[in-house]
Amino acid sequence: MTECVSEPTMTRGRAVHRRAISEPEPAESAKSSDDARLEAAEPRAAMITVCRVDQLPPGEAVRVAAVDPPIAVFHTEDGEFYAVDDTCTHQDASLADGWLEGCTVECPLHASCFDLRTGRPSGPPATTPIRTYPVVVEDGVIRVAYGEVAC
Ligand code: FES
To answer: Could you give all domains of the chain from N- to C-terminal order, each with its CATH number?
Structure first.
């Protein structure tokens, strides 16, 4: 069962609305026989259904806590989707609560910025990149290849 909770978490600039998802939602037609073959062939690249595209408007992020470690999925104003580890590599902060600007998210705790395309921080205090994951949007459903690190 999916629980989407939209709550404004920022006051500076454009607020990123965080949605908490308790576990992946099996969307309509989310699992096909092709998916099953892919998962069987590549067990490390489990596809996680995040939510429907219309549940994640541009400028917002969703935290998927059903996986460990949790991931954050961002929908940029340009219409791109990115999935990264949700926890900042500096300390324990949720990047889904951060500020989204272009393809960059700013950590809400100490303001390190991470490039969502590469996971690299642009400056201290974080020095270690976050992992990024491939995102697939198919039939209006956002899915992440969890376990398959993109960068
Ligand atoms: S917790 Fe993210 S920069 Fe410190």
So the answer is: 6-146 (2.102.10.10)
Residues with CB under 6 A from ligand 1: 88, 90-91, 93, 107, 109-110, 112, 125-126
For residue 130, the CA-to-ligand 1 centroid distance in Å is 12
> Any residues with CB less than 8 A from the CB of 27 and at least 6 apart, and which?
49, 51, 52, 139, 141
pLDDT at 9: 36
Going by CA atoms, what residue is nearest to atom 3 of ligand 1? 110
Higher pLDDT, 84 or 2: 84
Instruction: Read off the pLDDT of residues 25-75 as tens digits, 9 standing for 90 and up.
Output: 444 444 455 455 444 444 556 899 999 999 999 999 999 999 999 999 999
